[in-house]
TrEMBL record:
It comes from the Eukaryota. One of its GO terms (biological process) is Golgi organization. InterPro entries: Golgin_subfamily_A_member_5 (IPR019177). Its main location: Golgi. Residues 110-124, 141-155, 480-501 have a biased composition (Polar residues). This is Golgin-84. GO terms for cellular component: Golgi cisterna; Golgi membrane. The lineage of its organism: Eukaryota, Metazoa, Ecdysozoa, Arthropoda, Hexapoda. Keywords: Coiled coil, Golgi apparatus, Membrane, Transmembrane, Transmembrane helix. It comes from Allacma fusca. It is a single-pass type IV membrane protein. Residues 105-155, 218-239, 480-515 are annotated as: Disordered.
Length: 627
């Protein structure tokens, strides 16, 4: 029920305020009626003790015309929205059940209500219980019924009489007069403020008039100065224009020369590139020539090695033919020996079977032992011969295989030699063509070097002239800026005059802008030349990279040629010295007790052994031949 208690408290506060406002209004009416009869021109208005400090001043009441103006704020020229607001604030009325009370002027409604409330009134809380509210309400109602008021010396005991008195026409006139007095007081205050502001504005206007007079005098002086300076500037500008025309003509001539020199320089740059390229090609030609000489030497050595290998192959073939002949002769001899031995054995057996006697038995015993010994020796020789024959056959087969392999190696070496000869011929043709190009380029370079020197001298002269012209232009521009800088401070005070008088100055800016454009053109051309030089440098770098690649290829070819020479030497010598190859094993060493056949066989075996050693070493160095 807190909301009900709040509503009851608010109602009680409202009733108390109504009672207090009524009492204040009655007191003011008594004082106002007595004073209005005695004084008509000027009156003083006083509120209660709380309000006296604010509205204690006295004001003169104006005539009827002024009152009519104040009553109609729309026709008043001095009326402002602020005045209208003050009127609405000061002329506040509180209406409740036909009751009408006037609030004091100069304060808002809430402040007036706070001032009208008594000090000793207790504050009413909104959260008090309902029983207490009812008791207080009954007490206040009883007090209001029991209280009596005095109006104009008369005792008014009831509220109805009080309301009738307040709603009477006399009370309404008193309220209107109070409102008019409050409005007049506020307007008089505003008029005082307006007068003060007017005096201040008058003083400011006097000061500004003095400053304007001084400024006009200074402007007249400055105009005279500007006129004199303008005449001087016009003369200087005419002189500078003439100089500018002359210098522009000179600059055009120099520009044409620069264009010609730049074109020639471009041609010279190309020639320099060609010269550098010619030098690089000369170095490459020298290197290729040295490499060709080395290749020729290596081909000669390889040809000598091939001839030596062919001779060795022929000697091996001859040795094989001799061995085959010896082997055939040896076979025939062995067969004849075996036949003779068989015949002897048969004849001895026949003799032994036919001659059986006592006399012949003693004489035949030693002959049989000798025969058996010879037969055993012959059998052993036959077995040895069979083994040697089988070994010689295997050796012949191996020698044939080795001959075939050597022939295949010779063919591969010949093919490699042919390839090397083709490469050498190509390199020679390339070197001849490069030499011819080098001769042509060297002639062109020698003819163009003279032109380059001439162009350089002309370029130096042109650069000197351009620098002189640039210095002259800078001096003229500095003179113009000095003449114009003296008047810039004066132009700030009179901007309209400065715009009219500074019209010829942009001609100097145009002069400087033309020179600036020419300089920018020169800078752009220099940048283009630098870019072309960078591109040429990149081309030179690419050529050097190609040269390095060619050097790497040449080194690889040299390594391959070295490998071929090493392989040919290893094939010719087997990777060993001549002493090692010529040395023979112990079981093939000749002795004085050997027969002719054994010595021949040992020699053949020694040759075959050396060939086998060479072939084995070649197979070690070149494993591809094993396939």
């Amino acid at each position: 029920m807190s909301w009900f208690a709040d509503i009851a408290g608010k109602a009680e506060d409202f009733l108390n305020k109504i009672d207090q406002n009524a009492a204040v209004a009655l007191n003011t009416l008594e004082e106002g009626v007595g004073q209005s009869r005695s004084r008509k021109g000027s009156k003083t208005w006083a509120f209660t003790e709380d309000v006296k400090s604010e509205t204690s001043t006295s004001y003169d009441v104006p005539t009827d015309s002024t009152i009519s103006v104040t009553m109609n704020p729309e026709t008043n020229p001095m009326a402002t929205p602020l005045n209208n607001n003050t009127m609405s604030d000061t002329a506040l009325s509180i209406k409740s059940d036909g009751f009408r009370a006037v609030a004091p002027s100069g304060l808002p409604l809430q402040a007036q209500q706070n001032k009208l409330t008594p000090v000793n009134q207790p504050s009413r809380s909104r959260s008090r219980p309902t029983t207490k509210v009812k008791q207080e309400h009954t007490e206040i109602s009883n007090e209001s019924q029991s209280t009596t008021t005095s109006v104009n010396g008369k005792q008014v005991k009831t509220d109805e009489e009080l309301l009738e008195f307040l709603n009477s026409p006399g009370q309404k006139e008193i309220d209107e007069s109070a409102l008019l007095k409050s409005e007049l007081a506020t307007q008089s205050k505003e008029m005082g403020m307006v007068l003060k502001n007017y005096k201040k504005l008058q003083q400011d206007f006097d000061r500004q008039s003095k400053t304007t007079d001084e400024l006009r005098k200074s402007l007249n002086d400055q105009e005279s100065r500007l006129s004199s300076e303008e005449s001087n500037n016009v003369q200087e500008i005419s002189r500078l224009k003439e100089e500018k025309e002359k210098k522009n003509a000179e600059i055009n001539q120099l520009q044409q020369r620069l264009d010609e020199t730049l074109e020639k320089l471009k041609g010279m740059d190309k020639l320099l590139e060609l010269q550098n390229r010619v030098e690089h090609l000369d170095l490459e030609n020298r290197q290729l020539a040295s490499k060709n000489m080395e290749l020729d030497d290596k081909t000669g050595t390889l040809n000598n090695q091939l001839i030596f290998l062919e001779k060795q192959a022929q000697s091996a073939k001859e040795a094989l033919a001799v061995v085959e002949n010896d082997f055939s002769v040896y076979k025939e001899k062995a067969k004849s020996i075996l036949k003779s031995k068989d015949e002897l054995i048969v004849s001895i057996k026949n003799q032994n079977s036919s001659s059986k006697g006592i006399d012949g038995s003693f004489s035949s015993i030693p002959t049989d032992a000798q025969v058996m010994a010879e037969i055993g020796s012959l059998k052993n020789e036959r077995e040895l011969l069979h083994g040697e024959i089988s070994q010689s056959r295997s050796l012949c087969d191996s020698l044939k295989d080795e001959n075939r392999r050597l022939e295949s190696d010779l063919q591969s070496l010949r093919s490699n030699l042919l390839e090397l000869q083709e490469i050498c011929s190509r390199d020679r043709n390339i070197s001849h063509s490069i030499q011819e190009e080098n001769l042509q380029l060297s002639q062109k370079v020698s003819s163009l070097q003279l032109e380059v020197e001439r162009e350089k001298s002309e370029k130096r002269k042109l650069d000197e002239k351009v620098q002189k012209l640039a210095n002259d232009n800078e001096l003229g521009f500095s003179i113009a800026t000095r003449s114009s800088s003296g008047s810039t401070n004066d132009f700030t005070k009179a901007s309209s005059l400065s715009r009219m008088n500074m019209s010829p100055v942009p001609s100097l800016g145009s002069m400087s802008s033309d020179n600036f454009d020419e300089r920018e053109n020169l800078k752009t051309r220099i940048k283009a030349l630098s870019q072309s030089l960078m591109e040429k440098q990149s081309l030179i770098n690419n050529i050097s990279a190609d040269k390095q690649l060619l050097q790497i290829r040449v080194e690889r070819m040299q390594a391959q040629i070295q490998e071929l020479t090493d392989s040919s030497e290893s094939n010719s010598h087997g990777g060993l010295t001549q002493t090692v190859i010529s040395s023979q094993p112990l079981y093939l060493s000749e002795s004085p007790w050997d027969s002719g056949v054994t010595t021949r066989v040992k020699r053949v075996y020694s040759r075959v052994d050396s060939l086998c050693c060479q072939f084995g070493l070649a197979m070690r160095h070149r494993p591809n031949l094993r396939l």
